[in-house]
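Structure, all two chains, one model.
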Amino acid sequence: MNVTLEKSFPLPGSAETAWQLLCDIEAVAGCMPGARITERIDEQRFKGLVSVKFGPASLSFRGEIELKSIDATSRTLVLSGKGTDSTGSSGASMDLTARIEAVDGYNCTLIGNSTISVSGKAATFGGRMMGSVADQVLKQFADHFGARVEQMQGSQVAFTDQPGSEGAGPIAARTTPPTAVHRVLPKATAVVQQPAELNALSLLWGMIRDGFKSLFGTYRR
Amino acid sequence: MGDMSDLKEREDKLQGMGTSMLRKEDAKFIRGQGNYVDDIKMPGMLFGALVRSPYAHARIKGIDKSKALAAPGVVAVLTADDLKPVNLHWMPTVGGDVQAVLADQKVHFQMQEVAMVIATDRYAAADGAALVEVDYEELPAIVDPKKALLPDAPVLREDIADKNDLTHGPRTHPNHIFTWEAGNKDATDNAFKNAEIVVREEILNPRVHPCPLETCGCVSSFDKASGNLTVYVSTQIPHLFRTVLAMLSGIAESKIRVVGGDIGGGFGNKVPIYPGYVVATVASIVTGVPIKWIESRMENIATSSFARDYHGVGELAADKNGVIKALRFSALADHGAFNSHVSATKFPAGLFSICTGSYAIPSAYCRVDAVFTNKAPGGVAYRCSLRVTEAIYLIERMIDVLAQKLNIDKAEIRRRNFVKADQFPFTTPFGWTLDSGDYHTALDKVLKAVDYDGLRKEQAAKRADLNCPTLMGIGLSTFTEIVGAGPTAVCDILGIGLFDSCEIRVHPTGGVIARLGTMTQGQGHATTYSQIIATELGLPASDIVVEEGDTDKSPYGAGTWGSRSTPVSGAATAQAARKIKAKAKQIAAHLLEVAEGDLEWEIDRFKVKGNVSQFKTMKEICMVSHTGNLPAGMEQGLNAVAYYDPPNLTYPFGAYLCVVDIDKHTGETTVRRFYALDDCGTRINPMVIEGQIHGGLTEAFAVAMGQQVPFDENGNHLGNTLMDYFLPTAVETPHWETDHTVTPCPHHPLGAKGVAESPHVGGIPCFSNAVVDAFAHLGVTHMDMPHNAYRVWQQCNQLGVNQR
């Protein structure tokens, strides 16, 4: 089951700020709930793990991700990832290109272009929802990302403090459906706690993880 | 001559052929006291769970068992490398191919067997399976068979890439299995060139699955001390199963015992030898303890024998009056990753060449091209194991297409092309000799019963009224089936002829045990065979015990599939009984001190012609046969074994009519009426026949209206749970009206033909014809199955008939 998405999100800040943030791995990490780096293979390549809990079942995803390029001139970041859940019953992979385009001095656009592919039980049970799932996950990422940019621009942002929201508490314990965390900002503390490598990785794993939650949430109905 | 009431009383007591005796099996089943393979518990028994591939096509770079082996309860983890030393990592298929028992370096379809975890209980085995880490390198998959033979198509079967023949002729591409053709191509092509009318349609028989209530499974038990192997397995072919096990394992066939037990439905799904059986057996041989392996529902739908997946092209040439001059059918057959399609050796495309159906067609040619794709292997299954469904679906759809083209009534065009009653036995251009039939009578009886003309008038009125919220469709199917494989001269599997057998032992007090080479899966064999013997021997059916499925007890036979039990084993039963009856007659003559010629048979006794008081009942003879008071030189006992090699297959037929009402706005199709007339020759138990027809029609309804095994572009299975896969219950199933005519089979000892497949083969095109007929006035000539609400709505929407 392959899904290709091209999404662009307006950001309340300058392209320069946004690109800074995109390169500021630490900060971007906070925009994507999820995943844990288990190993850094080299400059570009990481190994990671994400645990998903849906109802009685919990799924642990192992995967590898590669930062293909970070190009400051075109403000473009390219990465690809591939993972298999530890029961060996599902696989997933993604190629992502994230780009910042200037609109004016105070606004810019984040353009995400990704191709996601799932196989095994993931496709059997939820392949038909992959489009909307990935769509929603990208949107969620963008919301958080936008808020960060806005914050960097020094404008006021009202934080919604949500106990057990992303960053806080073990990921495995999260049962809030993706839509609920929509537009909810992570705790500032959570952001700085995130390991630097998490930005790219958590984007990928966030997608797969939330993907699974919705898939199996539906499946169990 | 006893008075009539006395005769009737004696006759009723036997409950012989023609009576609707209640099924002997049901007392056990309705109490939930059946004994299925998963009910078997043996001391020290371990459980196997299979590790399966999430990818449809991938290279295996490594398998790490360590975590699994460390898990509590896990005893062993078997992979292809562990089976190599005993050379069982691959096994030959009856299709002339080989199949991976456990994936060797590559996986070729999603959920292919990669490893088996053996553990102390089912849960530990499943947990262990989840801990086996397999490193895959995903490869591009072929899902669409039309792309399998493209020059740049990925090569699926590297293991046989260099083989240019898989026993069915030259291969033209690494993904090509065989090309099979029959008939007279030149004569047919000429007929098409000179034809007044030619019609052509692309017609798909989509990939479906029979989905029996009980999934597949086995308990393999190897006794290291005696060297005996016992396999309890849910199989339709216990004897062939044992033969294959002997060939694979090298264990003497005499030391292998295969026990069928009770089976919760087969429909062809339980004919193949599945990798799980082989691995469980190897595991038992290695560990010396019994191993149980039972499929989950997902495993069953996703990996064990699918049905159909025939991408057909139908062409008919005819004159302006709709008289068919020639038929040209072809099909692209998607056999999945291995050619394990079970069929008679000489018929790689089964009996597809029955595709001339009930019609006298002078010239015909058909061709089947089989290819590999990244899907599960099989193709044998679904209440018609030999491609008859595909063939009959094509001809019954195409004759409607021709009727629409010529604007001839769909019943009339059939009448014009039927083989006439006085033309039987009729040999088709493909060489099949249709044994007997009366197609005109059958069709006319149905049309009269449903007031066909009235229905057509109603349809015309509704078509004229644009405000009518529904579309009305009338479907016809006048099919001819080919069942009862088969004559050993043409039919064999692994070289073993498809005869069948029956052994009868009569005991002193008249109790009878009959043992057969077939295997009941719900068809009511214990009842039907008893009734045959009851009538033949004049002993009550209630005292006759039928045993099947235990290879240590029953004589050799090819099992139950392709509606072959009554045509082949039923005949063997009659012949064994007649051997016994002949001996009984000698004894009677001896006891009555008359010549055999002076005796006549009456229900349950031999009596002296013209002397009412002089007779010997079978019960008396049974006792005497175990004494010394016998004709000189005669041995004691009343036992016989018969092996029956049918001179021809049997050709049951039927005329079906279906009326549907389709909601223009939702696409929901309501089956208003389904009238099914079947002719299976002599009817042994009318109630059992009716039950078989109800089941076959329900499975036809399932296939036509909702079943489908879908895949995405990467070969992911998108419908292997009962959430997605349509299994009709009493809620969805329409009401069936059944009827019959009786045209006995001339070459069967009882005049009987097979029946269980007929309603499936004849029912599917009947539903499709009804749905397409609802759109016929709008120029629609074909719609592919399944006709679920969404697909039918799309058709309504496309035609704009749902505009308010």
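Strands of chain A lie at 2-11, 36-40, 45-54, 57-71, 76-85, 90-102, 108-120.
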